Amino acid sequence: MLTINVAVLLAVIVFFRLRRRTQSRSRNDEKMTVAIVLALGVLIAPTPAGQGILSVLEELASGVTQAGR
Predict the structure, then answer these.
(1) Which 8-state DSSP code applies to residue 20?
(2) Cβ 6 vs Cβ 47: under 8 Å
(3) H or E stretch including 28?
(4) How far apart, in whole angstroms, are the C-alpha atoms of residue 9 and residue 40?
(5) DSSP string, 29-51
(6) What phi and psi, each to the nearest 5 degrees, are found at residue 5?
(7) Per-residue pLDDT tens digits for 1-56
(8) Exposed e or buried b for every residue in 19-47, given b needs 16+ CB within 10 A?
(9) Does pTM surpass 0.70?
(10) Using CA atoms, how far apart are residues 26 and 45, in angstroms rounded to an integer?
């Protein structure tokens, strides 16, 4: 039996949607891409990979704020 991880499937869809040229996208197409990316974020967030990405972004944000002082 073949199982497909939904997060991986959404990541592949986002990759191919973002490869297209910007000029050929309609407003509805852009809204759909945003919705798919948000769904991907919700699926990735509770995973260990998502927590790792969050910690890296937190460190980056704290470094930027400390550099601005």
Answers:
(1) S
(2) no
(3) helix 27-44
(4) 9
(5) HHHHHHHHHHHHHHHHTTSHHHH
(6) -70, 125
(7) 556 678 888 888 888 888 877 677 788 888 888 888 888 888 888 888 888 888 88
(8) eeeeeeeeeeeeeebeeebeebeebbeee
(9) no
(10) 29
